[in-house]
Each structure stands twice: as C-alpha cells, then as structure tokens.
Design goal:
The complex is a heterodimer of chains A (656) and B (120). Chain A is α/β, with parallel strands linked by helices. Helix content of chain A is 39%, strand content 14%. Chain A folds into four domains: 58 residues, no CATH class; 172 residues, Thiamin diphosphate (ThDP)-binding fold, Pyr/PP domains (Rossmann fold, 3-Layer(aba) Sandwich); 179 residues, TPP-binding domain (Rossmann fold); 161 residues, Thiamin diphosphate (ThDP)-binding fold, Pyr/PP domains (Rossmann fold), CATH 3.40.50. Chain A is globular and about 75 Å long. Chain B has one domain. Chain B is mainly alpha-helical. Chain B has six helices and no strands. Classes of the chains: A alpha/beta (656), B mainly alpha (120).
Chain lengths: 656, 120
C-alpha cells in the first residue's frame, strides 16, 4: 500500500509481481462506500452539468485512511512473524531502522517479543557478531535485521567472518523498493535495487521476496540452507511496503512451509574405506582438525578415531576439536614426521603442510614444505561444497591424494567403522604398542609448556600465561566457557587449560576481521546463560574499540560475562608488521612518543576500559598492572558475574 | 645463495659457541640494554622479559639463558627466518651488546611446579 498517499491506491505487491495496476478510481471504490459524512455533503454540492462518479468524489475528497493497513486486515509483517515463530530462533539482536519498522513493530507487539526476543544493539556488526558467537555455543542460528544499505554496510564485516567460519546467521535487510511511493529523502537514500548484492560474495544464499507467500517460502528456505552443512549466513531483502501492506485475500490461503532439518552430506563410502586403509597402514598418521567439530559429541568421536589409530591430533584454531588434556593432543610440529595426514575441515590445507616465511631479500617471502616427500594427504570437509570466487578465503590450492566432500561429524562414525574393519590383528597390535610412547610424549610436552608459562610469571605488565591461569583459577569449579578470545594471548588458554567440551573454547572468527571478539563473546555468553554456564572472554583492546556499544547490550539484557582485558595498548599485529618493513628497508621505525611505530599504538592517552564499561552498566576495575592484584580482582568480578551481571577487568598485559 | 650463506654462518657461530670458542666481546650494560630492548622494538615479539610468544619461534625464548653471543649477534644481523634482520645502521653494535647484557641478566625462571597455579 502506498503509504501517505490515500488518493492513489496502488497495490505495491501487485506492482512488484508485475501484475497490472488498477486505476486509482477503481482501487478506492471500497472506500467510497465508507465515505465519511463530510464527503457525502461535499458530493451534494457538486454542479449537475458534469456529474462526477462516486469514485471520483471519493478520490478527491475522501478522508485519508491512516493507517491504511489497519483498516484492511492483518499487516504483512504479522504473517512474517508467524513464519519466523515456526522456526527455532530464540533471539534477534539488531539495531533499529525505519526500513524494517513494520516487522519490528509486529515482532514486539503482535509476536509478544518472544521467539525471537529483540535485543537492542548499537551497531549492526555487533548484532551479527553476537549471532556468530551464539551459534558456536548453542548450535542454533539467530537472525538479525539491518537497515538496507547503511546498516548492511555496517554488518558486512561480521557477515564475512560468519561466512569464513561457516556459521549460519539469518540476515534480513529492510529496503523500500517502490521508487514511486517510498518516502523521499533519507528512506530513498537508504534503499537500493539489490541490497543483497553487497554481501552476495560471502553469503550462502539470498532472495528478495515480493509477496507474503513468497516470504514464507524464502524464510523457511533461508533457514534450511543456513543450517544445512556447510553452514553459512543467508540474506533476505525485505521490502518496506511488503511489511506494511495488509495481507490481501486472493482466494488462496497463505501457508507456512514445514521445515525439516536436512541430513548433512557425508563422505562417499568408497573414499571413506580408502582413507581408513591408508590410515591403518600408516606408521605415523597425523590428524589435523580446524573447523571440524561443532559439538561435544563430535569431540568424543574424534577421540575414538585418534585412539584407534594412535594418531596425534593437531588442533588448529577453527574450533576446539579435541580435548587439550588428551595424550594424543600435539603441537603442529608432528606434521613434519607424518606419512599420512588426515585433514579435517582445514581452512588452509596448503599452510598446514607448507610454511611461508615473510622474510627475504626480494620482499616477497619464502615458501617451504613442512612434510616429507611421499606423505599421503587426505582431506575431509565441507569446504568443497561452498566455494565462491571473489573473496580469497579458500586460500592457496593444495593437491591431496584423497578428497572427501562431506561433513566431518557426520562422516566420523562411518570412518571409525571403516578403520575398525581395516584393522588386522597385526596392525592393531602394532598401533597399541604406541600408546605408552604417546603418553610419555604428551607428558613431556605438557611439562615444557608449563615451564614456558612460568617465564616472566611476576612481570609487569602481566604475562599472558599468568592472565589465563589466574582467571582459570577463579572459575575452575564452575561449568565454565572461555568462549571467545580476541587479540593474541599466545594460545595460552588452549595450551594450559583442561578443555574437553565444545563450549570451553569455540575458535576464531574465521575471517579475522577485528572487532569480532566482544560481540561474539556477548553472543556466546547469551547462549551459556541459558545453560547456566559461566562465560569468560579474553578481550583484545583494539578489538573492543571497534564497537564498544555491545557492552551496553550485555548490561541492558542482563547477559553475564566476565571480560578480562588483554590490554597491550596497541594493534599489536600491525606493530610488528611496520617494524618488519622498517627493518627490511634498513630504516629506524619512527615511534613518535609511543612505544611502537606511529599509527599502531593505543596509548597517549591510555584508554580506561574499566571506565568505559562502567559507563554502560558494567561492574569494572582497573587498570591492573601488578600480577599480585589480579587474583583478588578476579575473585570480586566472578561474584558479580555469578549474580547475573557483566564485569570487566582492565589488565595491562605483555604484548602477547 | 644469500640464504645459504646466512645459514652456514649461523651454524658455524652456534657450533663455535657450543664448542667453547667464545671470543670476548665488550661486556654490555644491562640497565641500558633494557631500555634499548624497548627502543629497538625487541619487546614486540619477545615480550619485555624476552619470554617469547607464538609469534617468536613457536615458544622459544630469548631469556633467560640467551643463545651464545656469536649465534645471537649473527642471527640478529642476518636472519632470514620470521624475525627481520637488524642491520648495524638501525641497531648499533653497542646497543646490541647492551641488549645481550640485559638478556643475560634476566633471572632464571622458577620450576613451574613451585608455582601453585601452574602446578595444579
């Protein structure tokens, strides 16, 4: 319905679907019958020479029907809410915008603000990041709403992270498609022919529904596509008119398609059996897992496979994948000795078996192989089922000997059975003889790691190893989740802490877009809150400052989260990059008055993150520079978080 | 060719040092070296105590117990690994010697088993 133009009744839905628009007089005919007394009196005064039709009178003198949709039936966006409610979407983090005001109002007033519950965000990137972090813990997608152009532009980095990390997020962008009837000015500036084009390169699917029924099909389809491995974000453009128009009776009853969860793709059985044969007969098989395992049950499956083969497991950064406490957990160095490598959902197989050294006289770096000649490479993963062209997250091409396109967790049971079938008694005995050596190697590695953690234990700024251990000491008796880590704490949490559940550590952002850590932590904490878990995140300083408003969202919606700042007062990766280039060019890096090259420090003035958090309703303390003060401060903060409130400690740390 | 020369020189320096050939060098000033360690950006990858990080040789550390001087200085001047080389122009010899003195002054690390949080 053309809003604010009661005299010209154009059915926008019909316009969008290509149906010829009826004449204005015809469309207003129903209103003539309902003409107000004032309109009837006006008709009586018309000259008789040119008698107007009743429709013309109504068109020229009728009372504006405000709001038009309330007089003609249910708003389209009410039906949209009905559709959304058939699916399991608990929350909707979003920043408000006029282009989706129709569905916004329906969600909170018609839908009762439940399933999904609207969570007020201060940046679209925060909203998507929250959905991202939520999925990693809960295993269920959230949806968000964004303003069609500028809001989607804000959200785009978060969407790219979700795409790279293979995480489902349902994004709906409001846009006002009808140029003839949309409000001029800002709403038109914020509309586009095809908002989805902006993120098409890094979403799994998108659509622009043009009718209520089309919306029902598209939303259920979007949910299904997003939640069928390989997971990924999906995008729907949502016309403002479609949200606000009444649902018209075309003689066909609207229906909501039933969602049925799709079975994930599995590796082809012939290939699975060949993989099992190679692994069983290998002398030094190694398993490398990246974005492979999304559930605690999946972690148990991988333990089963690793123990059957006595294969060391290298945990890359995509997910936890494998218990840190298991004696087969190993650092990446074991890859150099492998004769068969099983790569599970590797985001970068090339860099798993090769190295790149950013240092030579030509300034282009050096490549070097990390594996022995003849090493057999096996790949299992979904990545070949969702490859796009423009953005290069697919990394360098790596030839492998056996490729299986399929979901890791779905394929592991078959692979385990195939390995059991391939194990002869001789091979089984030979493999079992490795157990003691593997346990000793693990203990040796653990001792070495702990000794490294002891270095600079009393240093100020506080060492990242101590940061992690002091924090763990305060939460170890709880059902804890160190869900998200931003900045770089030298992986101490995964190197030192006992982790065996998927939510103990959920992995990196995927696209390495900075600014993800804080919203993802709030999203993870939201999921953990519903399970009664305690959430901690180690929070990079630079990362927080991209969109710190997410702190307010956590306080507003009572999302308990302990944020421990890894405040090294710089964009540290860039600190080192600029230093590197200065060295290559034989120049002294200019520091100005900072400790690091100009443009990379966050100091002078130092950001007082504790005050920032306090201003948005958090309990906070800092800056903490003395390691002896860290434990007591953490103890206080844990009490606050256990009461249901978020708390932040501003800790000055060593660079990494 | 350049890379091979660097590796041979470094290997010789390391071997010589471990075999006891440790030509004297002017002992540096540890206090001044601590300042130079910051000024020249060593802390960026190695931490303020030389404790290292995942960005510096997979957890190997500069201190305590730094490499023998010959290996240390050869590496700093001509590394072609992850660390960029520091020429004498940007890191004068005296500063490097003082940095080395600082690294030597870093006290031994306690056995982790004596630290309750790490021993648990």
């Amino acid at each position: 319905m053309a809003r604010g133009d009661s005299g010209l009744k154009v059915d926008r839905r019909k316009f969008l679907t290509g149906v010829a628009v009826a004449g204005a007089a015809g469309t207003v005919a129903p209103h003539a019958a309902d003409a107000t007394p004032a309109a009837s009196a006006a008709a009586a005064r018309l000259p008789s020479a040119l008698p107007p039709t009743a429709q013309t009178i109504a068109a020229e003198t009728g009372t504006p029907d405000i709001p038009p949709y309330s007089q003609h039936g249910r708003p389209g966006s009410d039906f949209m809410v009905d559709v959304i409610k058939t699916l399991d979407i608990k929350y909707l983090p979003a920043n408000p915008a006029s282009s989706f005001r129709g569905i916004h109002e329906s969600l909170i007033d018609y839908g009762g603000n439940k399933q999904p519950e609207f969570l007020t965000c201060m940046h679209e990137e925060s909203a998507v990041g929250m959905a991202h972090g939520y999925f990693k813990v809960a295993g269920k997608p959230l949806m968000t709403l964004v303003h069609g152009t500028v809001g989607l532009q804000h959200a785009s980095m978060g969407i790219y992270n979700a795409f790279c990390d293979r995480v489902p997020v349902i994004i709906m962008g409001g846009t006002d498609l009808d140029a003839a009837y949309r409000p001029p000015g800002v709403p038109t500036v914020h509309s586009a022919q095809d908002i989805n084009a902006m993120v098409r390169d890094y979403t799994k699917w998108d659509d622009t529904p043009v009718s209520a029924q089309h919306f029902a099909q598209s939303f259920v389809r979007a949910y299904k596509i997003a939640t069928t491995p390989p997971y990924g974000p999906v995008m729907l453009a949502l016309d403002a008119g479609l949200q606000q128009e009444p649902i018209e009776d075309h003689g066909q009853k609207l229906y909501i398609p039933k969602y049925v969860k799709g079975a994930p793709p599995q590796g082809e059985m012939g290939a699975v059996r060949e993989a099992a044969r190679l692994l069983v007969n290998a002398e030094r098989p190694v398993i490398v897992a990246d974005r492979a395992i999304n559930t605690t049950q999946g972690i148990k499956l991988l333990v089963q496979l690793a123990e059957l083969l006595q294969a060391p497991v290298v945990r890359q950064r995509g997910r936890l994948n494998f218990p840190t406490t298991h004696y087969l957990s190993r650092p990446a160095g074991v890859i150099r000795q492998a004769d068969v490598i099983l790569g599970l959902e590797l985001s970068d197989y090339w860099a798993t078996v090769n190295g790149f050294v950013d240092n030579n006289e030509h300034g282009v770096g050096m490549n070097e192989s990390h594996i022995k000649p003849g090493t057999k490479l096996i790949s299992l993963g979904n990545h070949d089922l969702m490859t796009k062209s423009n953005y290069q997250e697919f990394q360098r091409f790596q030839s492998v000997d056996l490729q299986m396109a399929g979901d890791v967790e779905a394929t592991l049971p078959s692979l385990i059975e195939a390995v059991k079938s391939a194990l002869t008694s001789d091979r089984k005995a030979a493999i079992e003889r490795k157990i003691e050596a593997n346990k000793k190697a693990w203990q040796k590695g653990r001792d070495n790691t702990h000794q490294l953690a002891a270095i600079a234990w009393d240093a100020s700024p506080i060492s990242t190893a101590r940061l992690v251990m002091e924090t763990y000491n305060q939460v170890k008796d709880l059902d804890w989740s160190m869900a998200v880590e931003s900045g770089n704490t030298s992986n101490w949490a995964r190197r030192l802490l006992p982790m065996d559940k998927h939510y103990h550590w959920t992995g990196s952002s995927g696209g390495y877009g900075v600014g993800w850590g804080s919203p993802a932590a709030v999203g993870a904490a939201l999921a953990n809150r519903d399970e009664g878990r305690f959430t901690v995140n180690f929070q990079g300083d630079g990362d927080l400052m991209y969109a710190p408003g997410v702190l307010w969202t956590a306080a507003r919606h009572k999302i308990p989260l302990l944020t421990v700042m890894h405040n090294n007062r710089g964009y540290h990766q860039e600190v080192m990059h600029v230093q590197r280039l200065a060295n290559f060019r034989n120049r002294v890096a200019y520091l100005g008055n900072d400790m690091a090259p100009i443009g990379t420090s966050i100091q002078n003035p130092d950001v007082e993150y504790h005050k920032l958090a306090e201003s948005m309703g958090w309990w906070a303390k800092g800056p903490i520079k003395d390691p002896a003060e860290l434990g007591p401060a953490l103890k206080e903060a844990v009490v606050v978080v256990k009461s249901g409130q978020p708390a932040l400690l501003n800790v000055w740390t060593q660079p990494r | 060719m350049h890379r091979q020369i660097v590796r041979v020189a470094l290997a010789a320096a390391v071997a010589g040092a471990f075999l006891g050939f440790n030509p004297a060098f002017a002992a540096g000033d540890a206090a001044r070296g601590k300042l130079q360690f910051v000024k020249h950006g060593c802390w960026q990858c190695h931490g303020f105590r030389g404790q290292g990080s995942v960005a510096s040789s997979g957890g190997k550390v500069l201190a305590p117990d730094p490499l023998p001087w010959e290996a240390f200085s050869a590496f700093v001047r001509s590394t072609n690994r992850a660390m960029p080389p520091f020429s004498e122009k940007i890191l004068p010899n005296r500063d490097l010697e003082d940095i080395y003195a600082y690294l030597q002054s870093v006290p031994k690390t306690a056995d982790y088993k004596s630290i309750p949080l790490l021993a648990q």
